[in-house]
Amino acid sequence: MDFHIARQSLPAAMAEFSRQSGFQILFPYDLLKDVKTHAVDGRMSPEQAVVALIEGTGIKANHAGTRSFALSLAKANGGVNGTGAEVRPVALLTGGATSYVAAQSAVSASATSPAASEDAPPPATIVVTGSRGTPRTVTDSPTPIDVISGKELETTGKPGVLAALNTLVPSFNVPTRAGGGTSTVISTGGLRGLNPDQMLVLVNGKRRHKTSLINAVSSLYNGSVPTDLDMIPTSAVDHIEVLRDGAAAQYGSDAIAGVINIILRKDRNKGTASFTAGQNMDRSDGENYLAEASYGLALGDKGYADFFVNAKKQDASNRATAIANCTAVGQATCLYYPVNGQLDPREATADRMVTKNYGAFPTQAVNLGYNTSYDAGAFEVYSFGTYGLRKSQLDFTFRYPNNSASLPTVYPNGFRPSLNINEEDFEFALGAKGVVEGWKWDLSSNYGKNRSWQDGFNTLNPSLGPTSPTSFYVGSLISTEWDNSLDLTKGYKLGGGNLQVSAGVMHRRESYAVQQGDPGSYAAGTYTYVVNGTTIRPAPGAQAANGFTPADAGYKSRNNISAYLDVAYDPTRHTTIDLAGRFEHFDDSSGNAVIGKATVRQEVTPWLALRGAVNNGFRAPSIAQQLYASTTGQFRTINGTLNLLQIKTLPVDSPAAIALGSKPLKPERSLNFSAGFVLKPTRRLNITVDAYQIQVNDRIALTSTLTGTAVSNILVSNGLSGDISAQYYSNAIDTRTRGIDVVATWNNTVAQRVKMQWNLGYNYNQTVITRVAANPAQLAALGANYVLFDRVSQMNMTENLPKSKLFLNNVSTFGPVTLSSRLVRYGGFYSNQNASGTVNGQPVYASDRYFGAKWITDMELGVQATKAINLAIGANNLFNVYPDAVGVASAIYGNGQYPSTGSYGFTGGYYYGRVRVNF
Question: pLDDT grade, residue 87 (50/70/90)?
Answer without folding.
Answer: very low
